[in-house]
Amino acid sequence: MAFSEKIVNLKKEVLKESESLFRHVEEVAEQNTLKVLDAMRECKVSDAHFNTTSGYAYDDIGRQKLDELYARIFGAERALVRTQFVSGTHALATVLFGILRPGDELVSLTGKPYDTMQTVIGYDNPCPGSLKEFGIKYAELPMLEGKVNIAGIKDIVKPETKLVLIQRSRGYSMRSPLSIADIRAITSEVHRVKADCICFVDNCYGEFVETEEPTQAGADIMAGSLIKNPGGGIAPTGGYIAGRDKLVELASYRLTSPGMGDELGASLANNRLLFQGLFLAPHTVAQAIKGAIFAAGIFAKLGYKTLPLPGEVRGDIIQAIELGSAEKLIAFCGGIQKYSPVDSFAAPEPWDMPGYADKVIMAAGTFVQGASIEFSADGPLRAPYNVYLQGGLTFEHALAGVMGAAEAVAEIG
Ligand SMILES: *Cc1c(COP(=O)(O)O)cnc(C)c1O
């Protein structure tokens, strides 16, 4: 595994130019580590919370402690952290189905939602069981030059608008992610227009990127995936919901059943993995962001359009790179796969993934299947052939993978 002299020299240049950016990322990680540590101390996390439970699992103290810990760290009244959520989409859908009732309107304030959320909502991509079938109305406010159209909120939020969906990360699009300051401005405008409108943030890929979370910036409820940021690369599966007491309770009735809510649900996976992953998450997120900054630096120097630009402020862990052709997208993912600790011998191919409209290619040589807090890259097979790179349990691995991908793309010419 030797890299060409050209790419090694490029690496040195980019690392030198990124020093102050890296320092900022490390400062955020330090503050977030203290935030998590303080909460763990205040909640008196103990060895006894790491046990597995079975059956109904009433009074599962590990499950209860994890809910309490997440709520405290995210500045929320209540949280629901479960390996029973099969993915981030499941946690997000649980919030929507738990809160919305026939005749209510859902408004997306960040344009077209993430691919799998379109399936849940059921407008462009109809699917049996979608919100549309249950009589939930839907409208969206398109993004304006990559930003939320805050001035347009007063016209789109109507008396029947029960909930607005605010997607923090870019998803498979070239818009900017939202900063916590952006989220504060959006939620404050929504609440000014309609005080009881529920601001729901899709927080996927955003946790621990800044020192505050959406629930500390006006969001009423948020949800995300444990095989992304807050699982720290250790959680084996799962999702979380955090927010106002009553709203999280409603979601819990959808996760299990009305009346049961959050009082059942066995901890089949060792709870230690969720506690330890959360403890590591601020550091892991910092590793991933440093990898993303490095990738932006290298590919910008090679002449590609990157979003964000190498020096731009980050709102999530994603680095998008516009590769311009299907061949380069496939080569990029092949390069990432080759430098993966697991399945390095596999060649990723585009396939029809459940919940997605276009074929998607994914490089994921990860310990946890599909975990995108681990170093991974993916993108839909559609022009302009953007690759979305994210994660990295260690910065050193991200360096190798990015260089591998750069060389694989260069071979295409
Ligand atoms: C990852 C992600 C989701 C959820 O995807 P899952 O694969 O179901 O966890 C939802 N929204 C956004 C913006 C995402 O990045």
Silhouette = globular
Portion in beta strands: 5-15%
Order of helices and strands: HHHEHEHEHEHEEEHHEEHEEEH
Count of distinct structural domains: 2
Task: State the distance separating the first and last CA atoms.
Answer: 21 Å
Structural class: alpha/beta
Describe this structure in words.
With 413 residues, the chain is of the alpha/beta class. It has two domains: 5-32 and 278-412, Methioning gamme-lyase, C-terminal domain (Aspartate Aminotransferase, domain 1), CATH 3.90.1150.60; 52-268, 3-Layer(aba) Sandwich (Aspartate Aminotransferase, domain 2). 39% of the residues lie in helices and 14% in strands. It is built from eleven helices and twelve strands. It has helices at 5-17, 19-42, 61-73, 88-99, 115-121, 153-156, 180-193, 245-255, 271-301, 326-338, 395-412, and strands spanning 78-82, 105-108, 137-140, 161-167, 198-202, 221-225, 239-243, 305-307, 319-322, 360-363, 376-380, 386-390. The strands form two sheets. It has a seven-stranded mixed β-sheet with strand order 1-7-6-5-4-2-3, sandwiched between helices. Strands 8-9-12-11-10 form a five-stranded antiparallel β-sheet, covered by helices on one side. Helix 2 runs antiparallel to helix 9, helix 9 (271-301) crosses helix 11 (395-412) and helix 10 packs antiparallel against helix 11. It starts with a helix and ends with a helix. The model has no long low-confidence stretch (mean pLDDT 96). The structure holds pyridoxal-5'-phosphate (PLP).
